[in-house]
Structure formats: structure tokens, C-alpha cells
Amino acid sequence: MRPSSVFLRRAVLPFLASAALLTTAAASAATAGEACGSVITAPLARPVPANDPCPSADPVVCRIRVLPMDQKVEAQRTRIRYHDLLEAMHRTEAAMRESGASDEEIARELVDMRNQAKEITRAGMTPEEVRILEERNTAKYGNPLGPTADQLYAKYGSWQKVTEASMRTSYAVDRELSLEYRPCPV
User: N or C: less crowded end of the chain, CB within 10 Å?
Assistant: First the structure.
């Protein structure tokens, strides 16, 4: 069985079955002051007029800025679920290191997991939201889900750096959704 199949069976399927509970647990952890593995939320900024100039070069950030408040709230919830999936990646990295996997094996698995997390998260988005994300990634990486492991290796020159990059999140998108992600150290 491929490791990504294990991820789907062990991490993703239970996640999908209890997404609301995980989101509530993350919010509770944040409220309780737990810094590791949680997403801290703040009140969302009010939407700005669509003709207001966007200070970001990222079209996703510009789109979020103008969303009606109910859609912004849903986008924030979706982003929290995405962070929950990224946290599963940290656990997978630790387990793979413990079992003796190479840096390349770990990096390739985590890039695959990140792309799966994107697909899962996007399943709950509108076609327009997905289109914007896919257009951005296709323009930037030639792939609607984002960079491949080989593209990241060519950029960073080491599999360890590819692993680190695969678990990074867009600070600009998180900030626009009033989120602060605090991953657990491995």
C-alpha cells in the first residue's frame, strides 16, 4: 500500500468524518492557550468595496478581501480545516523519520499529501473559488495544485528544504482570514 493511501485511510477519512469536531477542537485549543498545532483566530475584517485597490499581488488575497462576511467566515473555516490536514503531515513526517525513510521519500510523500489536502479542501469551495486558486497555481507552477516535488527540489536544492516548503502555508492568505497557524515542532 502506498504511504499516501495510508494517509487517506488514517488521516483524511477520519478527518472528513469529524471536520466540525476538529475545527471546534482547534478553536478550543487556541482559546485554552495551546500554541502547538493550533490555529489562532481573530475577528475577520469587514469586506472592502470591489473597486478598492488591493495591496497584495496574490489574487487569492484580493478575492478574500471583497467577499461578503458570510463567505469570509466560511473561507476561514475551510482554511482551518486545511491547517488540520497540514498538521497530519507533521505527524507523518515524524513517523516516516522514525521508520528510517530517506529525506527524498519523506519530501515526496509530504508534497503528495499537501496536494491531496488541497483537493480535499477545495471540494468544499465554489467552482469560482477553485478556478481562481487553480489559475494562480497553473500560472506560477504549471500545475493547478501547485509545485511538484521535483520543482521544489530544483528550487531549494535539498529534500529537507522541500519537506519544509511542503508544510508552509501562505502567511498572506492566513492574515487576510485573521488566522495564525502554530505548527508543532517535529
Answer: N
Per-residue pLDDT, 26? 40
What sections of 18-143 are H helices per DSSP?
Answer: 19-31, 59-66, 69-98, 103-122, 127-141
The whole-number pLDDT of residue 185 equals: 62
| DSSP secondary structure of 120-172 | HHHTTS-HHHHHHHHHHHHHHHSSTT---HHHHHHHHSSHHHHHHHHT---HH
Q: What is the pLDDT of residue 31?
A: 40
pLDDT in tens, 29-41: 444 444 556 678 8
Cell, residue 80: 482551518
What is the rounded distance in angstroms from the CA atom of residue 45 to the CA atom of residue 178?
8
For residues 81 and 36, which has the higher predicted lDDT (pLDDT)? 81
Instruction: Assess contact for 115 and 151: CB atoms under 8 A.
Output: no
CB of 78 closer than 8 Å to CB of 64: no
d(CA 154, CA 67): 36
Q: Which residue has the cell 498572506?
A: 172
Evaluate if pTM is beyond 0.85.
no
Hey, what's the cell of 85? 490536514
Query: Alpha-carbon distance 177 to 56, whole Å?
Result: 14
- Residue type at 91? R
